[in-house]
Amino acid sequence: MTKILNRPKETSLMSNYNRSNLAFVRGKGVRLFDKTGKMFLDLGAGIAVNSLGHSHPKLVKVLADQGSKLWHTSNLYTVPKQEELANVLTDNTFADKVFFTNSGAESVECAIKVARRFYFSKGQSNRNRIISFEGSFHGRTMGTISAAGSRKLLEGFGPKLPGFDTVRKLSLESVEKKISERTCAILVEPILGEGGIVTLPCSFLKGLKKLCKKYNLLLIFDEVQSGIGRTGYFLAHENCEVTPDIVALAKGLGNGFPIGACLATKRVAACMVPGTHGSTYGGNPLGCAVALETIKCILKPNFLTTIRRKGDFFKEKLNNLQTMFPQQILEVRGKGLMLGLKCVSNNIDLVEKCRKENLLLVPGGSNTLRILPPLIIKYKEIEEGAERLQKVLSQMGK
Ligand SMILES: *Cc1c(COP(=O)(O)O)cnc(C)c1O
What we know:
The chain is an alpha/beta fold. The protein is 37% helix and 18% strand.
C-alpha cells in the first residue's frame, strides 16, 4: 500500500537517539565530509570504532574481495576466516578460545553465560552472581543493562534481571564485602569508557585478581572500548600484567563492520559444549575478513608503541589546554588514544560548539568529552584538533 504524502514526513525512525542533523557521505582517514563537501576532523571515530580511519584502502579491498566470494554460510559449517581470526586473537592475547558475536553487548552476554556455565559444569549452579561496578557500561541488552545497574539505563525496562551485585565505590574493600558463596565472577571495564574515561589503576586490577584467586572467582574484562590497540596495548589490561579469564571485545575489532568476540582461557571455555550458545551472523566471512586485516595492521611492528607516543603527545596538548582554561577543564584523563576531559560547562554544549568548528568529539558520562581518534591519526592532525579545541574553549571564556 502506498501512502500519499503531500507534506514533509516525520521521521520513520524511533526517537531513541539524540541525533545531530549532520550527515556524512564520505570519509578518508581522520576526515569526514558532508554532502556540501564540508570537511570535519573526526576525533570520535564512530565511538572508538574506526581505529584505522575511514575508507582504509586495505580494508576496502578485503571487504570487496570477500564480498565477491562469499557472505554467509552459518555456523553449521566451518568458516575458514573465523578459524584464522580466532588464531590471531589467541596467539596475541591471554586467551585460548574465541566465540564471535556481532556487537559489544553480545560479547558481554557471552562472557556472562560462560562464567555461569563454568560453575554449572562444576556442579555449582548456585554460583551465578556477578559483581559489577556503578558507572560502568556494558551495552543495551536486558542482561547488560542489569549488569551495569544504572537507573538511567534501566528506567522503564524493568524488571531488572537478577544475579548482579553492583559495587558503588571503586574500592577493593567494597568489592570484597559484596562477595558471597554465590558469586561467580567480577565484571569490569579496565578503563570506563561511557562512564567518562576513568582509568582503573593497575593496583586495583591486580587487587581484583587477588580477590578472584582468594574466593575462586572468574575475572571478566569488558574491553569493548579499550581493546584492539586503543590504549597503545593490544588489550588495555596487558599494561597491568593482570590475566583475566574472559574478555569481551567489539568496537575497534571490525573498524566499522559489526563484529565482536568473547575470549576465554581453555580451562573456562571448556564448559561451552555443543548447543550451549550460538549466533546466526556471529563470525561470518565478511566480518572475519575485515577484522583479520584490521588486527594485522594494528599488530605491525611499532604500531602500538606509536599509539602510546601519540597518546602522550595528545595528552601534553590537553594538559596545556587545562593550564590555559582551568575554569573549563577540571581533569585530563585516559591512556593512549582513549582520552577524556572532565569539563565544567555542559559537555553536550561543548560537543555542539566543536561541531561548528568542524571538530567531532564524543560526550561521555560525568560531564566529560571523549577523544577517541582513529589510531592512524598523525601528529599534525593531533595539533590541529588541539588548536580547534582551544578556539572553542577560548570562546567559552576563562
Ligand atoms: C560500546 C560498549 C558496549 C556495547 O557495545 P554495542 O556494540 O553497542 O553493543 C559494551 N561495553 C563497553 C565497554 C562499550 O564501550
